[in-house]
Structures are given as structure tokens and as C-alpha cells.
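Figure-free illustration: sequence to structure, shown twice.
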Amino acid sequence: MSQSVHQQEAVFHDQWAKQASPENTPVRELFEGPAAMENRFILRQMSDLTGKTLLDIGCGLGESSVYFALRGAMVTALDISPEMIAFAHKLASYHGMHINGKVSTAETLPEADNSYDLVYVANTLHHVTDKPRLLAEIARVLKPGGRFFAIDPLRYNPVINMYRRMATEVRTPDERPLSFADLALARQYFVDVGHREFWLTSLSLFLKYYFINRIHPNQQRYWKRIFTETQSSLRWWLPLRSLDEALTRVPGLRRLAWNMVLWGRKPNPT
């Protein structure tokens, strides 16, 4: 990623952070809400976080960092935006937690080798232009046997691609959603690489926001709004979530999902 793109990302996310407030920033909902399918899946894979060292790359407002701290992890939150890191500290304090926030690019991590049990990367891989460098850095800072988990959008779904074209004011133009070729790239650095796709028929929720709620994608980030939903408000949608459990296991259909969870493990020394 060029210096100009880094600057553009930092400025965009600085402005976003300045508009946020801790009391209106959901934390538990991003991992426990009915629409938090990706994070609920990741939590099951992570298991007990008590005492684990965890690096949150591209932490944004810090919701995930604070949640992991609430679950007992020792968290370092990293973001390119100084204002995002400042807000993440405020959010942690609001919830009575402590995190270690650092301003840095994702491609050059300011961390020692073999220092983390877990690395969490949400909505970041599709922003970097040098994925091999980022994956190599993740592998470097993980302890042998340590694992990383990433959530990023795929590039194939026509509904999501239309949404991206419309949401020009709430995202940066450098986004490059993932392809299934990125799985082969991850296998160059990690073992036990796996993936799971989410949101297929359940993307009807986005259509509801646009056609029924009349919310333009530039008015509100749909991918944030979903975490304000409850079991009650999503009664009509829950069967679609269940249907996707089966459909996203079909190789041809899962390419049309919105998000991929990607994970892998750093090999133990031979």
C-alpha cells in the first residue's frame, strides 16, 4: 500500500472516529448479536481467551479489542488512524477495561517475533495491496502454534457489489475484496488453513434496509446497522440464516456469499 493510500485511510478513519461516542458504540452485540455470525463462529474456534495474548489488527473503533479484553485476553489494538486508537482507549475505559493501543500500518507490525497467541484481523485484508507482506507479518508475530482469524468480504456477490458502488461516502476507494485465490496465498504462510462463508440469502436484510426502510448506503453503514438488530426484529430473517448454514457449504454457491472467515495456524518448529 502506497504512502498516499495510507494517508487517505488514516484521514478517512480519523473523521469516522471523531463522530463516534462510547455510549453509542455496541461491543457485545458485534459478537453475541443474532447477525454476528462471523464473530460467533470465530469465538467458538478461539475457545477460552483468559490470559491469551491477542493482536487486533485494523481495530477501528475498538469494539473487538474491548470485547476480547472483557473475555480475559491481553489485547494490543493496532490501527492506522490515531483517532481510532484514541477512541478505542476511550471505549475500553468506558467498559472498565485496558487495552494497549498502537498506531501503525498493517504491513509493518511494531511487535516482536513470536509474541501473540492469537491475531484477529477484521475488514483489513481487503484494504491492503500487499497481502503477502501482511500475512508474513502475522506469521512473524504469532507464537509457534498460534492462530489467526480474519473476516473480509468476497468479490463475487452482485448485491454486495452494487452496495459498494452506491456506498461511496462511507468507505475508501482502495478496497479489493478477497477471492478464493487468497486461500492459496494464506497456505504459503500457515498450516491448517480453513475458511467459512457467511451471508447468502440472509443478505435480504440489506435489501430490506434499502427498499423498505429507505436507508441509502451513504446514510448508514449497513454492515454496522446489522448489529443493532435483535432476535425479535429479525424473526423473519432467522430462517434465512439457518438456510445459509447449508447453502454456504456448497462450493459453487458459497462463492456468492458476502463474507469469508479465513484462519490458519503458525507451524511449530520441526
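We now fold a second protein in the same way, so the two outputs can be compared directly.
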Amino acid sequence: MRLENIPVLRIGNLEICPPIIQGGMGIRVSGGNLAAAAANTGCAGIIASAGLGQFENSELEGAKREVLVKLNEEALRAEIRKARSLSDGVIGVNIMVALTDYENHVKTSIEEGVDLIISGAGLALALPKYLDGSDVKLVPIVSSARALKILCKRWVSHFNKLPDAVVVEGVKAGGHLGYTYESIYDNTAPRVEDTVREVIAVANSYRPNIPVIAAGGIFDGNDIVYFLKLGVSGVQMATRFVCTDECDVHDNFKQAYLDAREGDITVIKSPVGLPGRVINNEFVERIKQGKTMPFKCNYQCLITCEPQKAPYCIAKVLANAAQGKMDEAFAFAGSNAYRCTEIVPVKTLVESLVKELSAALAQEPLRAG
């Protein structure tokens, strides 16, 4: 793969080229296999920690919460070690702040020596306290410049540390979104371009400057160049990596992407109190009509979930999707998922992105500095 004139995403002493972070996707969509394949191309490969343990297995019904927490810890260790066994590249873990066992996920990832931790679904205000002298890079996800200001103030005052980089996730991303359902529905949520500009201004006010990474709706090399010209140091892409041979999810999940049309990408109200972007199907139509799936919960994996009130278990639904049971589930997906037309090796995908990126830069090079 020719990488001449391709910008390098530098996060501390990590060098990521092409400047792409493969986004973390739970539950069990981006595991060690996908992360390693992405890392082997020079991108950063990211494992999503949420729900890696097989909590939904019938033999675990009635198991104590401690058992399920331990199960997830062991599964996370296994995925990190798998990725490390398959790649010498940059490997990270995406850990949702909203997880009830967030601290355990962070400690496990640090113990296993990952290169970076990406943390969103809430402000990761206490993340640096777990470092204990390690050099794991910490990359919070924010959806506004105000959020970055709050986080930096907290980190500096309590831990004398700034984020090693920051991801700005826009409204076009897949999965749970950091915006109100109403703002997405009536199209009043801020454009990611505007938020990126505001976040860059804040990030550049610190010394050293904080690298900014754009995410949400980025599909091809031209999109990457567009954001690089706005001043970001790199991009995070998740949706494109679903339709790859190495993606850890079931083929039925990938097929949902291939079958999707533009009008099939929709936003639902998740039972955990957040909007979520999904691919429409019969199951989605049922839940939009108010159908429920009663369940028992002895885990409560997300802080924001109220099992007694939730119409269905989001974790169970996503686990079904990971197993290909799409008649009992939906696939989280970004706004451009319908543009995926084939399943290819990760290497082929990244080569295509680099070719597009290189061609766009040849026409209009980035400004120095």
C-alpha cells in the first residue's frame, strides 16, 4: 500500500497511517479479529468492550451479577490477547462510560497493555485515575466544545493531564448518539463540521495541542480529506468496517447492510434513554408500534437502563444481532450504511480508502501547519 503524502495521525508516541481509527462497535461487532486486521493496515484497531461475555446464554439465567462481570472481563482479556497475537499494530478498546462495570473494563484494558482507550457515552471525567503510571493513551469522545472544556478542566485539576486526543462524534454516527431524539428528528442537531471547528479551537488552546478526530458519517477518502481540511488530525470510521471479511459479527448482520436502502436508515428511541441509529426491519417496526419483550435482568449493564420500565433489553437485542438472529434484533448503523455494496477484506477496504484519499490530496494538498 503506497502511503506517500498521506498524513499521519499522531497520538503521543503512536503513529497511525493512514489516519483512520476503526471505530468500536458493540455488542461483539468489533472484536479482536477486526481490530487486528485494521491495525495490520496501519489504522488503529479498536475492540468494543460492551457485552463481550456471553451473558445471554440460558445456562447463565439467574447468575449473580459478579459472575457476569467476571465473564465480561475474561472475554475482554481474550479479545485483546487475540488482537495482540495477530497484529503488532495499534490496538485500542472502546469503553462506554455508561457501563455499570466501566471501571473494571478500564482496569482490564490497562492491565493488558492496550495502546489507547476511547471512551464515550458519557463524559469520562475520572478516566485518568486508572492509569497508575501506564502509558495507555486516553481519548474521550465528545459532542460539543463545551464538553471538552469541562473534561479538560477536570482532568487538569484532578490528574494534571490533558486528553491524548479527542473524538468528535457527529449526529450521523451509528448506534447510540449523544444528542436528543427531538434534535435528530427535526434536524436541529448541530452539523459535525461546525462542532469540529469549535472543538479544534478549544483543543488548540492547550499546550500541547490536543489532536482532534472526526467521526460520524465518514464513508470514503473524499470525506476524510474534507475533514482533514477542516483541521482534524484523523478520522474514526465504523460502518465501513462492518462489511469486511474480518468483522467479528454474523454474516446476517453484514447482509442487513448490503440489503439496506437509504430510506431504511432510521433513528429509534433506545430503552436506555438515548436515540439510536439502526437499519429498519420488521423488529424495528414492532418496537415502534409499542410491542414489548419482557425480560429479567440480573446484570443491568448500562447505568441509564431501568429494567423494570424498559420495553426490551437492548443488550439482548444486540447480542441476537451479533448471532445473526435478525428477526429478533436490529443492526446499529451509520447514516451511510446503505452505500455498502460488498464484503471485502479489511486490507482491500483500506487500500481503496487510501487510493481515494491520495487522489483527493493530489488535486488539493493540505495546507502546511
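Summary for the second example: Residues 259-328 form one domain.
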